[in-house]
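User: Just a sanity check before I run the rest of the batch. Below are the C-alpha cells for the first item. I only need the designed sequence back.
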C-alpha cells in the first residue's frame, strides 16, 4: 500500500507496531478493528489527547495530524481497509460510500477529535 508506506509508516512503523512517543500500534488495535465510523474520523480530522490502545494508556506530544483530509474517498477506503487487514488484523473492508457518509456527517467539525469524542460515536 503506497500511501501507507509513504505517510503512515513514518510514525506507525511499516509493521504497524507503532513507535514510542510518535504513534500507537495499528496491529491488534481495537481502534483499527472497531467501528468504522469511529476509525474514519481519525485520519480525516486528526486525533489529539491521550489514548488507550491494547489496554495501554499512551500520550503523544503532537497528536495525529489530519493526514487524509484531502485524500480521495476511494484512496482513504483502500488505506483503512489495508490497515484493518494487515499484520494479523481481521476486520471488514471500508467502502468509499462509508467514507463519504462520515465526511458529510462531520464536515463542520472544527478541529481534531479527542479519543473521548470518538468513543461517543455509536457502534453500528
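Assistant: Here's the designed sequence for the first item:
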Amino acid at each position: 500500500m503506497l500511501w501507507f508506506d509513504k505517510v503512515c509508516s513514518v510514525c506507525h512503523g511499516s509493521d504497524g507496531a507503532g513507535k514510542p512517543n510518535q504513534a500507537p500500534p495499528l496491529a491488534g488495535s481495537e481502534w483499527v478493528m472497531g467501528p468504522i465510523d469511529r476509525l474514519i474520523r481519525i485520519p480525516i480530522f486528526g486525533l489529539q489527547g491521550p489514548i488507550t490502545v491494547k489496554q495501554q494508556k499512551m500520550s503523544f506530544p503532537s497528536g495525529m495530524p489530519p493526514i487524509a483530509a484531502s485524500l480521495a474517498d476511494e484512496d482513504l477506503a483502500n488505506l483503512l481497509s489495508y490497515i484493518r487487514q494487515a499484520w494479523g488484523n481481521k476486520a471488514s473492508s471500508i467502502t468509499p460510500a462509508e467514507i463519504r457518509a462520515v465526511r458529510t456527517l462531520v464536515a463542520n467539525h472544527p478541529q481534531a477529535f479527542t479519543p473521548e469524542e470518538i468513543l461517543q460515536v455509536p457502534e453500528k
